[in-house]
Amino acid sequence: MDFKEFKEKFEKIPVQIINDYPRKKPLVSVCIQTYNQVSFIKKCIEGALIQKTNFPFEILLADDDSNDGTREICIKYASKYPDKIKLFLHSRENNIKIGGFDSATFIALYNFFQSRGKYIAICEGDDFWTDPLKLQKQFDFMEENPNYSVCYHDYKIVNSKDQYINSDKASPLRDDLIPEELILAFRHPATLTVFFRNNINKNIPEEITRVLALDVFLNSLLGQIGAGKYLDYVLPSSYRVHGNGLWSEMHIGPKLISKINTYAQLSGYYNNIGNNNMANKFKQRNSKIKRYLVFWSVKNFEPKYLIWLIKNW
Asked: Half-sphere exposure of 152 toward its Cβ, with a 13 Å CA cutoff?
């Protein structure tokens, strides 16, 4: 699916673009997506603006029609840094609903299609980077190691007040990944830490528009290009957990359904490109999660998920 096909299928209201004019081609595209994150978006944007590099980079800032003041903040930053920030003002009519949930799929993929850099880095609007040399360090590694498709680093979990949370959920991936591990998505690096080769923005699989877990699908695509490298010399970024977080606050039932759907779409994708081995492996994972959902639903007296399974098995 190219950009034209994507827009024809999903763009109901034209996206308004601020600072849409020719400029020097960047080597890195920083993709920021936000929706109703008025308390956090400044820190996210500043984390990108403080980056010190010996190469040009662009910030693709996408607001999904926020109504809490986030959009106004984005406009102010775009006006202040027109040479750095390209702002996309989206409409909720373009939002792609997945499993009954609103998603950031449209604005995230729109950013990918618009990216002009050789590499892409991502930071969601409620997260933030702390190392002013993050992009430079990751760029240098990727330039020197062409066999890698992605590099990543540590992160820490913070709350809405930027206070560190010592949680067993904080498990940054500190190992290198071979391509098959990325493809299978058994383990994958956190989105706010990744820096990857921009080999995906010309033709994106349509199956990715049907999943909430874009990061899982993305890392599977990156595994087809090369391996993943953990960098221990990049300062940890901050992953924020708060009451409005889509995934962190989602109930376990919908999370399991989301995983089932993600594996089904990945299985379909690999089947379509003729990789029957990977298609079958994702099909097996799909069945395993379905069996666990049966166990969980019975244990926790949640019959509505059993009904869903009967309809979707």
From this structure: 25
Helix orientation angle between 276-299 and 303-312, rounded to the nearest 10 degrees: 150
Question: Helices H, strands E: what count in the chain?
Answer: 10, 10
Q: Which residues pair with 238 in a beta bridge?
A: 128, 156
For residue 276, which amino acid is it? N
pLDDT in tens, 190-242: 999 999 999 876 789 999 999 988 999 999 999 999 999 999 999 999 999 87
Q: How far is CA 303 from the centre of its chain?
A: 32
Q: Which of 100, 92, 105, 87 lies closest to 64, judged by CA? A: 92
Placement of tokens 């059993």 in the chain = 306
Could you tell me where the DSSP H helices lie in 81-175?
A: 105-114, 134-144
* 227-230 vs 148-152, strand pairing mode: parallel
Residues 95, 55 contacting (CB under 8 angstroms): no
Label residue 189 left, alpha or beta by phi (over 0 means left) and psi (-120 to 50 means alpha). beta
Is 228 in contact with 177 (CB distance < 8 Å)? yes
- 266 is written with which tokens? 């990945």
Instruction: At 87, give phi and psi (nearest 5°).
Output: -105, 135
31: β partners: 60, 122
Looking at the predicted structure, is the pLDDT value of residue 248 above 60? no
pTM of the model: 0.93
